[in-house]
Amino acid sequence: MKTYTRRTFAVLAAGIVVAGALTGCGSGSGDGDGKVTLTFANADPAATWAKVIEGFEAKNPDITVKQLNVPYAQFTSTINQRLSQGGGGGIDLFAVDTGVAVDFYNRGFLADLSDMRADATAAAVSPDMVEQNVIDGKLVAIEAWTTSQFLYYNKDLLDKAGVEAPPSDPTQPWTWEQLAAAAEKVKAANAAQYAFLFDQWDTYYQLQPLGVSAGGGNGIDGDQVSFSNPGWQRALSWYHDLFEKGLSPRGITNDKNGALFQEGKAAFLVSGPWGLTQAVAGKLNFGIAPEPYFAGGKPATSTDSWSVGISAKTDNLEAAKKFLRYMTIDPTGNAESAEVAAITPTNRHAYERYAAKATAAGGDAAKNFGTIMEYQLQNNAIHRPSVVGYSVFEPGANKMFADIRNGTDPKKAAEQADSSIEDQLKRLK
């Protein structure tokens, strides 16, 4: 999982206690009576995956699944350490974050799942959910969850400012320029404490669409970092001006943004599906529109969440494939995998049920929720780049965004980021 999914779970499932420490977690194994025990490593509280494990075990009484729950901050290093050991450190399956799949693959950690590729593609909401995990022609992980981004707005605050609401048609999104102009009207009318909020400031997941939409690409191509290119400079200048003009606040941390919108203090919020839960909880008079794009550019929307791969060193490959198939390709299992975290499943049938439930919860304001999300997943979704050294690239990009939000000139911040990240990537080789 990534930054945004940490945020999702914090909002929707707060209070669940992390279970399963590193010590005391046995390795995947088979015993004399033909039963198999699998170890599934992930970075979530144990309750997140408990339902899908229970469902799988009920249908497969000869297979037991144990969890190895590792704090997110230590997850990648723990996987690297454990799977570098003889026998793979007892791990059979593990969560794979977008971006680090190439590093895991290059280290020989990921089994080839190509025999599941056709079934995974047929089951997915969008084929590229599967293709993003194909490396050197091999499928190495399958995405269990996904997400998208929406423009939420408070109708009462827009009415107060005399601002017309954006359309809910997914084929007619506002431009980022239109959003900034509307936010300026809200600020000028003193209609809201905060004119516009991103759910996650200064994160590559949230801001990657700005650069892509403006024609700047992902900001990295191989080992070349390019936040200084014209497209990214257009995007970063727009981001910089949000704070310089007072349209967005400095000093507000990511854990506060959704709550501020829920409390009726913000006119606009760009957020994921969890924003719907917050708007409903706040009993707001709200609406939902597709994520904006830059005028003259292409629509681009953040996506992805956890994928799951199988250890290339497992002794229980067939049992592990059964569990992976259940949690990703099987509609019942995929729905169970996403239910506790209240995040979006990738199986198209599970997605339809999820979208219908979310729409019903949101009432008339959410009538286009599922339509917007499905359209964006199939047409606008952009995946974070799967490149060697992504674990270095992302923090470097996030630091650049933070510097710009705090007033650093976008050109200077980008040049520093390009140089610093490239130096770190060279040291990895």
What does it look like?
There is one protein chain. The protein is of the alpha/beta class. It has two domains: 3-145 and 305-346, Periplasmic binding protein-like II (D-Maltodextrin-Binding Protein, domain 2), CATH 3.40.190.10; 150-302 and 383-428, Periplasmic binding protein-like II (D-Maltodextrin-Binding Protein, domain 2, 3-Layer(aba) Sandwich). The chain contains 18 helices and 18 strands. The strands form six sheets. Strands 1, 2, 3, 4, 7 and 16 form a six-stranded mixed β-sheet that branches. Strands 10-13-9-14 form a four-stranded mixed β-sheet, with helices on both faces. A hairpin with a 2-residue loop joins strand 11 (220-221) and strand 12. It starts with a helix and ends with a helix. 54% of the residues are buried. Residues 1-28 have low confidence and may be disordered.
The pLDDT mean sits at 92
State the helix count.
Answer: 18
CATH architecture of the largest domain: 3-Layer(aba) Sandwich
Question: Nearest-angstrom radius of gyration?
Answer: 22 Å
Largest sheet: 6 strands, mixed
* Low-pLDDT ranges: 1-28
List the topology elements:
Blueprint: H1 3-12, E1 29-30, E2 36-42, H2 46-59, E3 63-69, H3 72-83, E4 93-96, H4 101-106, H5 117-123, H6 128-131, E5 134-135, E6 138-139, E7 142-143, E8 145-146, E9 150-154, H7 155-161, H8 176-188, E10 194-198, H9 204-213, E11 220-221, E12 224-225, H10 230-244, H11 254-262, E13 266-271, H12 274-281, E14 286-290, E15 301-302, E16 307-310, H13 317-328, H14 331-339, E17 344-345, H15 348-362, H16 369-379, E18 381-382, H17 390-405, H18 410-428
Parallel strand pairs: 2-3, 2-4, 10-13, 15-18
Antiparallel strand pairs: 1-2, 4-16, 5-6, 7-16, 8-17, 9-13, 9-14, 11-12
Helix pairs in contact: 2-14, 7-8, 9-10, 11-12, 13-14, 14-15, 17-18
